[in-house]
């Protein structure tokens, strides 16, 4: 269980006015759930993820994972970045095995485990390739396999499919849903796409900028159907999906003054 | 690990594989190679013609045949206290010593300067101060301090190779993408692992670029220093020959230096190809 309590992150700005990137956010991420944070740019969703990953210190509040307070980056939280961060000098297999290598897992065992994960993400035939010979979507799959390799408690995904074309993106969403169904990982997923949020989230939190805070949360379970059927069409034309999409859209596009009052 | 057990039914393998793109610029370099070869042949032919028809006095432009004869003579009998091989080895020994100092002091110090504010703060001042000076300007001072022997020359050369390597290593550390560091930390890397598995390889392209600059700087400083104060080496041989207007020996020296420079460049290219084939790819 990941617990976020009153988390605030404040950056000093050049004009002396502090920027409240994250303003007293509280959120729980239960095991086996996918929490998707959606919002316009600057709403603090990436700041939230960076704070959980331990890349950014909190100005106030606490984040705990299974009771342990988060103070620094660590192997118990796997991160998938928007821009892939694979190492060009290592082949795909060694990239996936990197976290296991850091843990001192023997070469044979880490390669065996990494091969199984490459199979999971459908890249078994690409183990020996250098990452720069892979397409963007395939590189993100390697990134997911790498993050899963150390068996982290939670997977943090920062707009991982944001830079992909819409067809690849759909394939990747399908992949993530199936990986989630198989592994039961708890996932925090950041996106600015409302459709992506509804397709993948078991919980969707809508965030608003200046200051970054959560303005609404919804529960959904389209992802279960999606993981089973692999077909995005019927899900996205489901009346409930359309209704939620409209509701979230109007929340995100609300003028700032009107939004203040709606906080949960 | 629960993943492993469940992963038997896996996601369908990727089929839309991108065709491995052909090595970039291969065709471009292949097409210029022929042109360069013809240009080189043309220049040599021009030299032959100029000597054959006496366009310039042999005192200024000796014929290729004379240079070749002289090359053999210098190689066999020697010139200015040593054979061609002696002079070449003397020069190479100096530059090798200087590059050794540059690499074994410059890289670790540069890496430390990139990693640590204190190290950078302390060492950047003296390095910036001397690096701005032309090496030959402080050679006389080094000779006063260290004598006319090998020490002063090797120190001079080391100073000229050290700075570019040190700066490059420092820039290499600074150029590591913060996302790459964050990714490694979130995979559980310790500080040492972060350094050896991420920072060092990421800095390698910059370090090799610095090494190339250092070789260039070292070579020009070397010959200049030998022209001024030496009892051996290619620069000394050239200077001795010039004093007796032995232009053909000067040519021999120049050709050897050109070949050395070319060999260094090719060696560095080979090293880059071997060590960092991924440069600029991701």
UniProtKB/TrEMBL annotation, chain A:
Residues 2-234 form the ABC transporter domain. SUPFAM superfamilies: P-loop containing nucleoside triphosphate hydrolases. One of its GO terms (molecular function) is ATP hydrolysis activity. The gene is tauB. Pfam families: ABC_tran. InterPro entries: AAA+_ATPase (IPR003593), ABC_transporter-like_ATP-bd (IPR003439), ABC_transporter-like_CS (IPR017871), ABC_transporter_ATP-bind (IPR050166), P-loop_NTPase (IPR027417). This is Taurine ABC transporter ATP-binding subunit. It comes from Mesorhizobium hawassense. Belongs to the ABC transporter superfamily. PANTHER family: TAURINE IMPORT ATP-BINDING PROTEIN TAUB (PTHR42788:SF18), TAURINE IMPORT ATP-BINDING PROTEIN-RELATED (PTHR42788). The keyword ATP-binding applies. Its EC number is 3.6.3.36. Keywords: ATP-binding, Cell inner membrane, Cell membrane, Hydrolase, Membrane, Nucleotide-binding, Translocase, Transport. It comes from the Bacteria. The keyword Hydrolase applies.
UniProtKB/TrEMBL annotation, chain B:
InterPro entries: MetI-like, MetI-like_sf. PROSITE patterns: ABC_TM1 (PS50928). It is a multi-pass membrane protein. One of its GO terms (cellular component) is plasma membrane. Coiled coil: none annotated. The chain crosses the membrane at residues 28-50, 95-115, 127-148, 154-173, 210-229, 241-264. Residues 1-28 are annotated as: Disordered. Residues 1-10 have a biased composition (Polar residues). One of its GO terms (biological process) is alkanesulfonate transmembrane transport. It is found in: Cell membrane. It comes from the Bacteria. Keywords: Cell membrane, Membrane, Transmembrane, Transmembrane helix, Transport. Residues 88-268 form the ABC transmembrane type-1 domain. Pfam families: BPD_transp_1. Probably part of an ABC transporter complex. Probably responsible for the translocation of the substrate across the membrane. Belongs to the binding-protein-dependent transport system permease family. This is Taurine transporter subunit.
């Amino acid at each position: 269980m990941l617990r976020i309590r009153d988390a605030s992150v404040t950056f000093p700005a050049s004009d002396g006015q502090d920027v409240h990137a994250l303003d007293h956010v509280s959120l729980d991420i239960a095991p086996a759930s996918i929490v998707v944070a959606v919002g316009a740019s600057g709403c603090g969703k990436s700041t939230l993820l960076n704070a959980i990953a331990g890349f950014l210190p909190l100005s106030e509040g606490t984040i705990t994972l299974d009771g342990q307070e988060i103070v620094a980056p660590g192997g118990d939280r796997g991160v998938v970045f928007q821009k892939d961060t694979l190492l060009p000098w290592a082949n795909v297999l060694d990239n996936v095995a990197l976290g296991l290598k850091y843990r001192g897992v023997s070469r044979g065992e880490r390669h065996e485990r990494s091969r199984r994960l490459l199979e999971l993400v459908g890249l078994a035939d690409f183990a020996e390739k250098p990452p720069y010979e892979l397409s963007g979507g395939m590189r993100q799959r390697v990134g997911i396999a790498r993050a899963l390799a150390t068996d982290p408690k939670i997977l943090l995904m920062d707009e991982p499919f944001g830079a992909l074309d819409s067809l690849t993106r759909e394939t990747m969403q399908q992949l993530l849903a199936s990986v989630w169904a198989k592994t039961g990982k708890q996932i925090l997923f950041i996106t600015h796409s409302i459709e992506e949020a509804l397709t993948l989230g078991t919980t969707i939190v809508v965030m608003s900028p200046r200051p970054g805070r959560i303005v609404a949360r919804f529960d959904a379970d389209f992802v279960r159907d999606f993981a089973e059927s692999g077909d995005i069409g019927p899900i996205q034309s489901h009346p409930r999906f359309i209704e939620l999409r409209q509701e979230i859209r109007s929340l995100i596009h609300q003028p700032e003054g009107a939004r203040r009052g709606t906080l949960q | 690990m629960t993943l492993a057990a469940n992963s038997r039914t896996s996601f369908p393998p990727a089929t839309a594989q991108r065709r491995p793109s052909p090595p970039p610029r291969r065709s471009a370099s292949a097409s210029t190679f022929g042109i360069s070869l013809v240009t080189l042949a043309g220049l040599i032919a021009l030299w032959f013609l100029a000597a054959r028809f006496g366009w310039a006095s042999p005192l200024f432009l000796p014929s290729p045949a004379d240079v070749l004869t002289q090359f053999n003579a210098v190689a066999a009998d020697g010139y200015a206290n040593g054979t061609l091989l002696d002079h070449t080895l003397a020069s190479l020994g100096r530059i090798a010593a200087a590059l050794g100092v540059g690499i074994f002091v410059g890289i670790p110090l540069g890496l430390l300067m990139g990693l640590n504010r204190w190290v950078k703060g302390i060492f950047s001042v003296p390095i910036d101060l001397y690096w701005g000076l032309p090496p030959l300007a402080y050679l006389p001072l080094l000779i006063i301090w260290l004598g006319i022997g090998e020490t002063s020359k090797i120190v001079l050369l080391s100073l000229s190779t050290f700075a570019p390597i040190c700066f490059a290593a420092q820039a290499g550390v600074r150029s590591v993408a913060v996302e790459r560091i964050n990714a490694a930390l979130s995979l559980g890397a310790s500080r040492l692992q972060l350094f050896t598995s991420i920072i060092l390889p990421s800095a390698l392209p910059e370090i090799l670029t610095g090494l190339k600059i250092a070789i260039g700087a070292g070579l020009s400083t070397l010959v200049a220093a030998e022209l001024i104060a030496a009892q051996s080496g290619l620069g000394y041989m050239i200077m001795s020959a010039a004093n007796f207007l032995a232009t053909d020996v000067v040519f021999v020296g120049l050709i050897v230096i050109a070949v050395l420079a070319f060999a260094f460049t090719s060696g560095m290219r080979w090293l880059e190809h071997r060590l960092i084939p991924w440069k600029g790819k991701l």
